[in-house]
Structures are given as structure tokens and as C-alpha cells.
Specification:
Blueprint: H1 4-13, E1 20-21, E2 29-33, E3 37-38, H2 55-67, E4 73-77, E5 83-87, H3 89-97, E6 102-109, H4 112-124, H5 132-149, H6 163-173, H7 177-185, H8 191-198, H9 204-210, H10 215-225, H11 234-245, H12 252-256, H13 273-276, H14 289-309, H15 311-323
Parallel strand pairs: 3-5, 4-6
Antiparallel strand pairs: 1-6, 2-6, 4-5
Helix pairs in contact: 2-3, 4-5, 5-7, 6-7, 9-11, 14-15
Length: 329
Amino acid sequence: MKSEKDILFDSIFKGEGNAHLELNDNGAIKNIKLDDLKDFHTGEYGHVFEVDYDTEMEELEEQIKEDGILEPIIVRKDIDGKYEKVSGHRRCFVAKKIGLDEVPCIVMNLEDEEAIKLMVVSNLSKRKTYKPSTLARAYKSYMEANLIQSGERTDLCRSSTKVNTREEAAKKFKTSSTTIQEYIRLTNLIPLLLELVDSKKIKRIPAVNISYLSAELQQRIYDNIQDKPNKLTLEIAENIKKEYKSGKVATIDDIDKFFPITMIKKEKIKINEKHLLKFMLPEAENWSSEDRQKFIEEAIPFYMDYCYHHPKKRKEWNLKLQGNKSEFN
């Protein structure tokens, strides 16, 4: 039969690892001053989840004001004697905002990999929405910790990653192993492109394709699409990746070929021919269109010469023209 400690740990950590609770005199939960709690800083990314004051945070604040902190903060001892927050950054944020000095905590003895996995699992199980970059770093952190725990260490973005590791993570996070691998690939994007993915200006799959390119070539892609990110279609992204893998794309000039400059279509000038007849000779009403065009072409140089020698008059005409543009429609 499981002990109370094991049941509590299983509810938090799903039975993973060999961690155990540090109990105080009264039980597993102890109050710790907020000043003694530090943000999670273990691993490549530390605490990968944003702590933003959004709608979810507002709801959490109202709940804590009314009921207090119902779920303790998960922490572990840091080397300086203080505590590293593993789970509960948002609760701590609210606690500080509303003026609390301390919060209920559960202190756990966790190895680095156990702490990283718990940080990821606890956040993904609570929060509703995430940026693609957040999911990318979270999945990568979890997978790396899993591989180190199992004695494996390989490039997570290579196909040599064990399938069962991805499938285990996919089952835990209720997604597919392919989706997890795609998100992890996003960590290879330069920051500017990753921001476009976060802002939904570039879709995930095209971004995954260009994540295989060098930073220099990714920067060139960004230079080409920054004003119109929708120019990076899935077809273009797949072709760039294919040619990059075959060695046909190696320079920024090679990238430019996929994004030809679009010529701006010149707008045709529309002139009300009947309106122009008022400024022509009386007999112009019987002229052909070709003769009227020839008359206008010959008259324009005389008009420009007059404007040059009569700048005040030119200014008056310009003001009048701006106020009567509708006459020429």
C-alpha cells in the first residue's frame, strides 16, 4: 500500500523519478517567504513558460483573493540556501501582486532532469494556450531530460531519436510524436522568424522546413518576407529545404531566387474626354480620338513652359486641381 508521501508525489509527478518530499514538523506543506523563492533556472531555457498578466491570470488573482492559494508551490532547495520554484510561478506572481509575504510550498528533492520534467508537465497540465516557441522549448526540455535520465543523449531533431521516447511524450501531452518533433525543430529558427511564427504570420509547417537552413540563409528569408510573411508558402518552403539538402541552395542569392521582386502594376490615368473638350478648339468636337490625343501631347509642353515662368499661377492651379479632382473622374 502506498504511503501518504507517495500518493502526494504521484498526484504531482505521475510517479516519475525517485524524488521525495522534505517534511516539516507539521507535514508536507511549509510556508516560505516570497523573497526566498527564485525563478526556475535549470536547463538550457530555465522556466520556458511566460508569466503574463492575461485573462487567465486575472481569474487566478480573483480566486486567490477569495480562497487563498489552494495548490502549494513546488520548490527545491538551491545551492545558496534559498529555493528554486519548479511549479507555481503564476501563483507567486499573483501573491506578490496582492501583497502576500509568503506562500505555501512543497519542498522536493529533485535531480535536475526530474525538476525540468516536473516544470514542463505541471505547466502544460494547467494552462490553456501557449505560443509555438513556448511549446517548442517545453517539449525540447522535456525530451532532453528524458533522454539524459535514460542514459541516452542525441540530437532531438534527428531521426535517430528513439521513437518510444517521442511516443511516451506524445501520450503524456495528448498529441502526436510527429507534432512534438515539429515543435522541437522550431528551436532551430532564428529569433526573428520564430517571432513571425508566434504572431501567426508564418504557419508551423513552412517554418519547420526552413529550420534546417543555416542562420545566414534564414536571415535572408526573413529579409525577403518581413513585409509580407505570407510569401513563405508551404510549397516554397519545401522546395527551399529540398534544394538546400541537395546542395543547390548555399548562398543568399540562391534564396533570393525563390522570392522574385513583384513589379508594381502601373495604374492607368482615366480622363473624362468630354471635360477636356472645354479646353480645346471648338472644332475639336469633330476630331477623332487620335487627333485629340495629339493636340494634348503638343499642348502639354506649352503648359509646362508657362508654369515654369509663372510659379504663382502654377501654385493657384495646383490648389484648384486638388479641390476639383472629382471633375476628372
